[in-house]
Amino acid sequence: xxxxxxxxxxxxxxxxxxxxxxxxxxxxxxxxxxxxxxxxxxxxxxxxxxxxxxxxxxx
Length: 59
What we know:
- Helices cover about 10% and strands about 35% of the residues.
- The protein is mainly beta and about 60 residues long.
- The strands form two sheets. The protein has a two-stranded antiparallel sheet with strand order 1-2. It has a two-stranded antiparallel sheet with strand order 3-4.
- It is extended, with a radius of gyration of 15 Å.
């Protein structure tokens, strides 16, 4: 994963913001599944994705 400068400035303050790119093949290789929902936790220098459990789901 690499952090890039956003190609579009934000509308509110016209500053460019960090943007990340993740290779789709890497997501698939480590167990991320299409249609699953993940919660994002931002920490200094770290991003964590946690699978959100759907209540009442048998999957």
